[in-house]
Amino acid sequence: MSKRFLSSLACALLLFNPDLMGQQYNLTNYGLEHGLPQATVFCTYEDAHGYLWVGTESGVARFNGVEFVVYDSNDGLPGNNVRSVAEGADGRIWVATDRGVGIFNGQEWTQITESQGLKGSAVLKLLPDNQGRMWAATNDHGVNIISTTYDSIAITNLSGYDGLAGDFVLDIHHDSKGRTWLALIGGINTITPADEGFVISNLEDSAYIPSNLISCVDEDAQGNLWFGTLNAGFFKLSKQNGHYDVTIYNHRNGMDDPRVWDIFCDDQGRVWIGSNENGLYYMEDGAIHNITTGNGLPGNLILSISRDRNGNLWLGSMNGLSLFRGFHFIHYTTADGLPGNQILAVKATPDGNIWVGSDGRGFARLDLDHNKLKSKFFGPEVGFTGRHVISIDFDSDGSSWIYDPNSSAYRFFWQ
To answer: Are 146 and 134 contacting, i.e. CB atoms less than 8 angstroms apart?
Structure first.
């Protein structure tokens, strides 16, 4: 899906200085004018087929890179305020709403609500585990652990009555050691499977944390856990010699906004932080940097951060959806499959392919897969004898027009 977002092929490597004031990053912003049902984006999720699901206050939108398809309560969702989207082990899409959970099989929606045993007024976060269960965090009744079969639903609820530090759960994370971490208003809990049920522990019994208003959690490649708070910035939790070590990041070291809505650890070692008033922060090599509306963001309140399969970041905000493609353009040459290093024409098609014409080897169709090019060249075998292509276009029936200035004529080909 994300290959459709490429509207042109970068032909030079351009590195950005993240600390340069006013620097414009590689951002694409989507709003109501592009088909979003509502400007407030609470969450994004890319499914196994490459569709991006976008949760808003007016339903959930599925984005294929070209257009948004919107689903709301009229289509079978239990509610329109969508805070989280996840994919189950069977490929069905789960959507958390203010009135329960909707499950989409590609054709129709089914619901899990109070009548099926779901606890809580609103579901704020969904996360599957490796047992095929779906965990559903709520705003007033802890967390529901949902198991489904073809014709039955079983739900286990854990709340303050069972030992949670509170009932308002904002985030869930399953760590690399098999524990589940809950970020909630009241602190941090870990949940460990036991022979009969679960064992609930409170992190504050074994570590000092700067706040018990915890909004989000993620884990980096080294197994460190990162938490965002609603009043004290963010902090890293690491275990050293059997004891927890807490490192706090706030105004003293470059985190000027104390309220954090989401945190994400990428595979390059960066930690990304969505703030309430100061846009997007990221920490790299111990230094904290900031990206705001002055750098191209549509708004400075960042509610969610997620990554697609091509490494792009999707940012949900009060001002729509933003696609962050990174700090630099990617440079492709003949070594990567281009027909020449002097690219004179570029054309993207709705099916996600990119057609390029060069001053050298004619033209080629490119398919971008995880930033790697797969090329198919066209030459005499299809009747094209030119080498210098300066223009490419397409008819509505899919036929292509190629212009070679040496022949002074357009050449017509069927795809």
So the answer is: yes
CA-nearest of 105, 2, 88 to 51 is: 2
Which tokens go with 216?
């989000």
**Residue 207 buriedness (CB in 10 A; 0-12 / 13-18 / 19+):** middle
On average, the pLDDT of the chain sits at 84
Distance, in Å, from the CA atom of 377 to the CA atom of 363, rounded to the nearest integer, reads 6
- Residue 369 gets the label, from left (phi > 0), alpha (psi -120 to 50) or beta, of beta
CA distances (Å), origin 61, targets 11, 74, 96, 179, 187 = 33, 13, 13, 32, 32
CA dist 325 and 25 (Å) reads: 8
61 token code pair:
């939108």
Residue identified by tokens 């490419």 is 392
401: confidence class by pLDDT, cuts 50, 70, 90: low
Q: What is the pLDDT of residue 405?
A: 58
% of the chain exceeding 90 in pLDDT:
62
Report whether 18 contacts 327 (CB < 8 A). Answer: yes
Are β-strands 302-307 and 243-249 bridged in parallel, bridged antiparallel, or unpaired? unpaired
Closest CA to 72 of 122, 36, 44, 48: 36
List the end-to-end C-alpha distance of the chain, in Å, as a whole number.
Answer: 21
> Is-contact 305 279, C-beta < 8 A?
no
Task: Give the pLDDT mean for 227-249.
Answer: 94
Location of structure tokens 């890293």: 236
Tokens of 68: 């948004």
Query: Minimal CA–CA distance to 52: which of 67, 31, 38, 37?
Result: 67
**pTM for the predicted model, two decimal places:** 0.76
- Locus of tokens 């524990």: 179
Q: Please tell me the predicted confidence (pLDDT) of residue 175.
A: 94
**Range name among 107-116, 141-150, 343-352 with the lowest pLDDT average:** 343-352
What CA–CA distance (Å, rounded) separates 235 from 247?
5
7 vs 354: CA distance, rounded Å: 9
Whose CA is closest to 356, among 369, 368, 343? Answer: 343
Backbone angles phi, psi at 253, to 5 degrees: -130, 30
DSSP result, 273-315: EEESSS-EEEEETTEEEEE-GGGT-S-S-EEEEEE-TTS-EEE
